[in-house]
Amino acid sequence: MIARGETGVPGDKSVTHRALLLGALAAGPCRFTRPLASLDTRATAAALRALGVKVGPLVEGRAVVVRGLGLRPPPFHAPRGALHCRNSGTTARLLLGLLAAHPFEARLTGDRSLRRRPMARVTEPLRAMGAAIEASEGERLPLVVRGGPLVPLAWRSPVASAQVKTALLLAGVAGGVRVAVTEPVASRDHTERLLRLLGVRVEVQDTTTAVEPPETLPAFEGEIPGDISSAAYLVAAGLLATSGELVVHGVGVNPTRTGFLRAVARMGGKVEESGRFFSLGEAAASLVARPARLKAIEVAPEEIPSMVDEIPLLACLAARAEGRSVFRGVGELRVKESDRLALVAANLAALGVAAHTEGDTLMVEGTDAPPAGRVTTAGDHRLAMAFAVLGTVPGAAVELDDRGCVAVSYPGFFRDLARVLHAS
Ligand code: S3P
To answer: Which long-range contacts (CB under 8 A, 24 or more apart) does 400-407 make?
Structure first.
């Protein structure tokens, strides 16, 4: 394949969720350009509407307006039915945080994938703040939350998770109490950046983040940077191409998210950054990717949070690299939209690549042989996109059991891939 052409990518998923949720608490209308319009962010928008917030339609290429209701007292109305978070863990966990401060009962549910994902990591600390949360199927969705007055919290999270950290910080902001969260390794910091932009005091020391609750949040607006987690697939396709170069514009390059680019550089791939701009407290840039001969990589557990969603893709790049790659400390992949750890290894093996797991470590042996076989995505968008990229190498015959699931985070993925990759 020849890499040639330029494209943008949809808005960052994490930043879009946060902009919608904080916008709902702001003191007036907020307008965001280039939001991500996907199944996940629509789940957040729909939940906010069910809680009495006016949120405009999320449509690709259109700005979205959120009519903020103000922060005090906690502004949401009791929803009539269950809040359906669909496939979106971010929607479920962040909403739980906000609902913990609201004095009514709400029921949260999700699709089959989300109903198997662990929620104790947020329900435990939210209970410690004073929220009543009932679970009928272990600490998983569906959950019923009844919030109310909260007490301050200092919490040590056993997992490095921005969803956990953000859920607790949002509970503190909505509930008017100080919250401090300590993580084993610092996770993505989009929430902290947005809060600071809105004048909120955020203190960070090592891996502890503390937020002083504000009395109000001003209305705000801005452009959502492109999602590095989506851009990564196109960049990887450029690295695997036989010649040419491709450009992805307007990609968020927050250092807590760019572990993929650092890993690729160590593998021998050169991705250039140009034309930096800043928006909503985030840096963004154009990324230029060219074909490269890749070599194997060893990734340490401390690096994982900065590339957590890109591990399946890095594993696919490792399948084309010279030598044996080792990814340590990737246990969290088991509780993502699918058991990504098991499925990455099994799918690579199904395509003729030697890959296996040992505890929380994933090992991939690079090969020049063209990958061929059928990939089981289990409806997981990131598996579909990672293996679609692996399927672009010369001679490959990779078949996905589901292409539609990319709509969870990147509905235009196949169109954009075709825009920058051409048959040789
Ligand atoms: C997200 C955090 C990550 C990531 C998810 C989005 C967020 O999850 O996998 O896609 O927006 O906070 P964890 O922080 O739980 O690892």
So the answer is: 400/374, 400/375, 401/374, 401/375, 401/376, 401/377, 402/377, 405/377, 405/379, 405/380, 405/381, 406/381, 407/38, 407/39, 407/381
What residue ranges do the domains of the chain occupy?
Answer: 2-7+225-422
Q: Classify 21 as helix, strand or coil.
A: helix
| pTM of the entire predicted model | 0.98
Secondary structure (3-state) at 226:
strand
For residue 166, give the ligand 1 atom closest to its CA. 12
Catalytic residue, candidates 40, 111, 227, 309: 309
2-7+225-422 has CATH 1.20.58.630 classification: no
The continuous run of DSSP H or E covering 221 comes out as strand 221-223
Atom of ligand 1 at shortest range from CA of 309: 9
- Separation of CA 305 and ligand 1 centre (Å): 9
pLDDT digits (tens, 9 = 90+) for 267-314: 999 899 999 999 999 999 999 999 999 999 999 999 999 999 999 999
Residue nearest to atom 4 of ligand 1 (CA): 309
End-to-end C-alpha distance for the chain, whole angstroms = 5
pLDDT in tens, 20-57: 999 999 999 999 999 999 999 999 999 999 999 999 99
d(CA 296, CA 318): 6
Rounded Cα gap, residues 176 and 180, in angstroms: 13
Ligand 1 site residues, Cβ closer than 6 angstroms: 14, 17, 90, 161-163, 166, 187-188, 308-309, 332
Residue nearest ligand 1's atom 5 by CA? 90
Ligand 1 centre and the CA of 13: distance in Å?
Answer: 9
Sign of CA dihedral 47, 51, 53, 56: positive
Nearest Cα to 67, choosing from 35, 34, 33, 20? 20
Tell me if residue 339 is catalytic. no
Protein residue whose Cα sits closest to atom 11 of ligand 1: 14
Q: Longest Cα pair distance anywhere in the chain, in angstroms?
A: 63
